[in-house]
Amino acid sequence: MKIFHSLCDFSLTKKTIITIGTFDGVHIGHTKILEKIIQISKELDCESLVLTFFPHPRMVLQEKSSVKLLHTMEEKKAMLQKTGIDNLIIHPFNKEFSQLSAEEFVKEILIDQLQIKKIIIGHDHRFGRNRTADINDLISFGKKYGFEVEQISAQEIDEIAVSSTKIRNALLDGTISLANEYLGYNYFFSGTVVQGQQIGSKIGFPTANIHIKEDYKLIPKNGVYIVKSYLNEELIYGIMNIGNRPTVNGLNQTIEVHFLDFDKDLYGQEITIEVVEFIREEQKFDSIDALKNQIQKDKEQSLSFILKNKSL
């Protein structure tokens, strides 16, 4: 996959079959569209192309926007790479770009720069200044400028309108299995293992404290989870706590993972955590001993779940 960081960098002699969107999460709805543009581009001897934007438009257009994204840009690149798309354009989104009218966008971007033969979009796609144009407008422009438009309906995506918003809500509600079903894979995040207060080690459950540098990355709701990771190419399961550690009077949110049957030093390493299942809410215990007893129960519950669900 060729990656371009601006529309100005893109150059191609062939016509393109394209789709446009933020593609946050690269979920099963996105996959349906991507598979189709790859198939058609091969049939018509064209190049498949995804046009996406960064920062996310809401980060630019909505003051004090607190939008959290399912993927960092590096994660999005990696997920799109797996699909087999020929070209990815990540165009910088700013207020000037947002002021293009729908027809200016079609003529100047789709026709003059991307040389599109066909565009395939999802059921809810809107574009142009203030997102005022929809599928009907796009079809009209297609007739005027000579390109085809195909819409993928919600019914084609397993009879369910999958959206990044629904996935975000599921993660914030703790319904991890639903979020993972929509995504088509386990929700994940990557971060660096940093020094913590080492309270876990003192009570017999050492943890890796994960620092995520991208502050726009969505973190699931506070609570305890079953997770897995590949450490030194070995699959390791663990128990993760996201929260403020109320039992020890913690003040800031932390992400701590106690890996099962693993005791090697991970400080400074970049690791990826896949979130498999939600176990329970975070809670404050009356004593450290009560906390230790609950962690042991969490561990036993996790081991039982893992034995029954090793495919997750």
What labels describe this entry?
26% strand; six-stranded parallel β-sheet; alpha/beta; single chain; 10 helices; six-stranded antiparallel barrel; elongated; 312 residues
Question: How would you describe this protein?
Answer:
By secondary structure, the chain is of the alpha/beta class. It has 10 helices and 12 strands. It has helices at 28-43, 57-61, 73-83, 95-98, 102-111, 135-145, 164-173, 176-183, 199-202, 288-308, and strands at residues 2-4, 16-20, 47-54, 87-92, 116-122, 148-152, 187-194, 208-211, 223-231, 234-243, 254-259, 270-280. Helix 5 packs across helix 6 and helix 7 (164-173) packs antiparallel against helix 8. The longest helix is centred in the last third of the chain and has 21 residues, at 288-308. The two termini are 28 Å apart.
Q: How much of the residues is beta strand, in percent? A: 25-35%
Number of helices: 10
Give the beta-strand count: 12
Secondary structure: helix percent: 25-40%
- Provide the spatial order of strands within the biggest beta sheet: 1-4-3-2-5-6
The H-and-E topology, N to C, reads as EEHEHHEHHEHEHHEHEEEEEH
Task: Report the principal-axis shape.
Answer: elongated
Characterize the biggest β-sheet. Answer: 6 strands, parallel
What structural class should be given to the helix and strand makeup? alpha/beta
Rounded mean pLDDT score: 88
Would you spell out the secondary-structure blueprint of this structure?
Elements lengths: L1 E3 L11 E5 L7 H16 L3 E8 L2 H5 L11 H11 L3 E6 L2 H4 L3 H10 L4 E7 L12 H11 L2 E5 L11 H10 L2 H8 L3 E8 L4 H4 L5 E4 L11 E9 L2 E10 L10 E6 L10 E11 L7 H21 L4
Parallel strand pairs: 1-4, 2-3, 2-5, 3-4, 5-6
Antiparallel strand pairs: 7-8, 7-12, 8-11, 9-10, 9-12, 10-11
Helix pairs in contact: 5-6, 7-8
